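Tokens for Nitronate monooxygenase. Go.
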Amino acid sequence: MNRITSLFGIQYPVVQAGMVWCSGWRLASAVSNAGGLGLIGAGSMHPETLREHIRKCRAATDRPFGVNIPLMYPQIEEIMDIVVEEKVKIVFTSAGNPKTWTSWLKERGITVVHVVSSSRFAVKCEEAGVDAVVAEGFEAGGHNGREETTTLCLIPSVRRATTLPLIAAGGIATGESMLAAMVLGAEGVQIGTRFALTDESSASKEFKSLCLGLGEGDTKLLLKKLSPVRLVKNAFRDAVEEAESRGASVEELRALLGKGRAKKGIFEGDLEQGELEIGQVAALVSRRESVDEVMKDLLETYRQAAGKTYF
């Protein structure tokens, strides 16, 4: 047991990231049943869809699970009310000021964790009263911090800056990287990419197949004028790069992005016009696995690495 497993009431300090179009009730319940903490990703769900996923997740597992809520969500009040009504006990917030909702959630008996990309924001989280932080490095998929600090640098910096329980994220997909994060000061890990490509993920088979064939350098952080996001190379990304290289305005980039790009790419499998978000560590993942297989491999390789003598 450590502070993360105790906080959530889970067996292993492994959290599945709440990823848009990947993290439905099937993935979340499978991770929770395997001893980790599964998260439903509210960012790609209409309010009533989230309610449905919470209920299905509760029916599929008797273990703890949570909901990830981006604070930029347009119907945030409705989403928060649903979380309370459905008696969700754990909420991860991201992409916004933790002071906005932390007290409100905690007053209702909910454990609150906030995702940060810098030690400065980790300190703000502690001031806001969150129960733990996720420190997410530049390697991560999806929306990313503007600081572009790598996980290897970020974790020890956050550990020095705050006493909060610390979860490491960004570029973690193996037991060895999990051990490295712990050595640097983390008490748990959040894993996105590897879980996004499992059988239980709600991402399309086309998206999974493409990502399982990626190599080093096949993702790039773009859209920094809007909200930085790590993208796989395709026709849409080429258009974004061209626009950014000629100095396109925020309005032009927003129009290019439009609505539903991530759904089109990740959920519907449009590999050319969709917004394909995945982490750098996809280059290390080359075969489809179940959540159970991933968890067993993580734990086995962690224990093997922890038992080695390096010099």
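The first strand starts at residue 14 and ends at 16.
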